[in-house]
From TrEMBL:
The lineage of its organism: Bacteria, Pseudomonadati, Pseudomonadota, Alphaproteobacteria, Hyphomicrobiales. It comes from Methylopila jiangsuensis. This is Nucleoside triphosphate pyrophosphatase. It catalyses: a 2'-deoxyribonucleoside 5'-triphosphate + H2O = a 2'-deoxyribonucleoside 5'-phosphate + diphosphate + H(+); a ribonucleoside 5'-triphosphate + H2O = a ribonucleoside 5'-phosphate + diphosphate + H(+). It is found in: Cytoplasm. One of its GO terms (biological process) is nucleotide metabolic process. It is an enzyme of class 3 (hydrolase). Its EC number is 3.6.1.9. Its cofactor is a divalent metal cation. GO terms for cellular component: cytoplasm. HAMAP family: Maf. The active site is at D81.
């Protein structure tokens, strides 16, 4: 007997290796199918209505799941996205090393909030969306340390909002965290597993 009950793997509407790893680590078969959406356009439409970073994360997760589900008839698709807010300021993935340096300088010595959204969709219809939050406090970073960190992180500094991957060398940046580990990594696993159980996709 396996935990997964459906005939096809769960489609993950994300190219994130860590999200796929979280799901396979939980015993779920996963097929990665990155979504083709204009994230900035979705964000602009939502923020024009005064949407919070949490709402943006949830909307992006749902949009990704819905888009991929349109290409996989009858398949269950999970989408995920994450936003970072420092007060009213919202961050996206840094485009290059200099952008990553600027983000780390802004976050240094301050607390920020990560909002991680996850959604399920099938045949172009969003079935469920959830957003979980975590609060992270960066220690005060010297310019020399930021350079050393960027050297150590390499391209990984550009793969996540804020310029860090907490599961790797990014852990060196922090002095305190409040929140679920999976939420920090960008995939609220426990709410997702509960939703999959309700959908009959995993053993209850």
């Amino acid at each position: 007997m396996t935990l997964w009950t459906l005939p096809h793997p769960l489609a993950l509407a994300s190219k994130s290796a860590i999200r796929a790893s979280i799901l396979t680590g939980a015993g779920l078969p996963v097929e990665t199918r990155p979504a083709d959406i204009d994230e900035r356009a979705v964000e602009a439409e939502l923020t024009g209505d005064g949407a919070s970073p949490a709402n943006v994360a949830g909307a992006l997760a749902a949009a990704k799941a819905v888009e991929v589900s349109l290409h996989l008839p009858g398949r269950l698709v999970a989408g995920a996205d994450q936003t970072l807010a420092l007060g009213s300021e919202r961050f996206t993935k840094p485009s290059d090393r200099e952008a990553g340096r600027r983000q780390l300088e802004r976050l240094s010595g301050r607390s920020h909030v990560l909002s991680s959204g996850v959604a399920l969709a099938i045949d172009g219809v969003a079935l469920w969306t959830e957003v979980e939050q975590a609060r992270l406090t960066m220690r005060t970073l010297s310019p020399a340390f930021i350079e050393a960190y960027l050297d150590a992180a390499g391209d990984g500094a550009r793969l996540s909002v804020g310029g860090y991957q907490f599961e790797g060398v990014g852990a060196h940046l922090f002095e305190a965290v409040e929140g679920d580990f999976f939420t920090i990594l960008g995939l609220p696993l426990l709410p997702l597993l509960a939703a999959l159980r309700r959908a009959g996709a995993v053993a209850a």
